[in-house]
Structures are given as C-alpha cells and as structure tokens.
Structure prediction request, 173 residues.
Amino acid sequence: MRPYFVLAGIFLAALGTAQADTYRWLDQSGKVHYGDVPSEEAAQIEQKKFGVTPEPVDANLPYATRIARQNFPVTLYYASNCGDPCQQARDLLNKRGIPFTEKNLVTKEEVDAFKLKSGGNRVPTLNVGKSWIKNFEAGQWNSELDIAGYPKTAPYRPQAPSSPQTAKPAVKN
Prediction:
C-alpha cells in the first residue's frame, strides 16, 4: 500500500510544478535561457504560458461551416443610411447561420478603400472569398453562399428547458 502513497506524492508534486511560471530571457551575451526565475542581469524577459490553448472562435460551428468560413470568409459592407436592404441582407445571413463580419463604411478613407477592393460604391455589398456581390438580391446572395458551401439554414440549437416558475401548467380535461 505504501508505494501508492509515494507515487501519489510524486504525482502531486509534479502537478504543482507544472503550474509554475516559466520565463524566457536573454543574458548579457545574447544567449536564450528558460527557467522559473530569470537572472538579475536578464534582458527581454517574457513569461511563457504552456498548455493553455484558447478555444477556437468557431468551435461550435458545424464542420462544413468551418471549412466554408476558412475557404470563403464572408463580409457584409453597409452604410448607416442603407436602411431596409442592409437589414434584409443581415437577416438572410443570420437566418442561414452564416458567420460573417460587418464593415460599416463611415469615413471617406473607408469608402475609398471599399471602392478600390469591390469595384463599386453600392451597399449592401457581400464579399464571399474573392467574389463581390453588389446590392441585395436574395436569390443571387443565396446562390453565392451555396457555391461556397455554407448551410442553407442555421444549425439546430436546442432550446433550454423552461424553469418550473415559467412553465405553464398542463390543462386537464
């Protein structure tokens, strides 16, 4: 029974040191060092984080959507005075579950850069990969998104069960 306690102690000690801070620094001659305490003469000290992997932004997206997003990122360009066409464009993208970026064209520099990239100045404009679709026309936008491999509808997301306080009582006959 005693060897198990020794192994458990070693494991816990190793686990404790695994969480210690690790630093990278340069000495006076420019040689790189790693350790838990940098020397007093150390220059360019950096704290390193090991074993911490950030969760990808699109971890909850279906595989096909992640691949489409990787190959054909979607950006919606709009202006604040665009009104209903821009809202319809946004609604279409949300209804299909398309991950997209929005770019509000406010400054003259933003508008000039947009004209240079897209070849026009009409909004809303959809950028799918290297394709530019000007003005909102649902059929054309859906077709381009289909070609890129995006889903036709948003993925199923189960609703959270209602709490007992908000649930309506069943009516008995």
The chain has two domains: 2-48, 63-148. Helices lie at 2-18, 63-71, 84-96, 108-118, 138-148. Residues 106 and 144 are 26 Å apart (CA to CA).
